[in-house]
Amino acid sequence: QVQVVESGGGLVQAGGSLRLSCAASVSISTIKAMGWFHQAPGKQRELVASIDDLGVTRYADSVKGRFTISDDTAKNTVYLDMNSLKPEDTGVYSCLAEHMGRDYWGQGTQVTVSS
Q: Which of 5, 33, 62, 97 falls 20 to 30 Å from 72 in CA-CA distance?
């Protein structure tokens, strides 16, 4: 069983920045991949960024050049640095950990970008 806990959401003005954190209860070096998902109000959840056990990162086109995913193995934490935020980035951001063939989700953290 893996627990995943997000933090760092909040209210920010358009053009601002936030850093989200996703802490895992196991060593992230044992996790095959971790990803950040965004669910805007009334829309389906979408993958915005992921990082795998080789350090390969992937981004949705909508966030390329603005968001950066990284990890800190010493802290078992994955980060999502969000810059140049737009109102359409508003929503719940959830972290997913793929471990031993199972997916583990956090509870999500709310990000609100005001125009």
A: 62
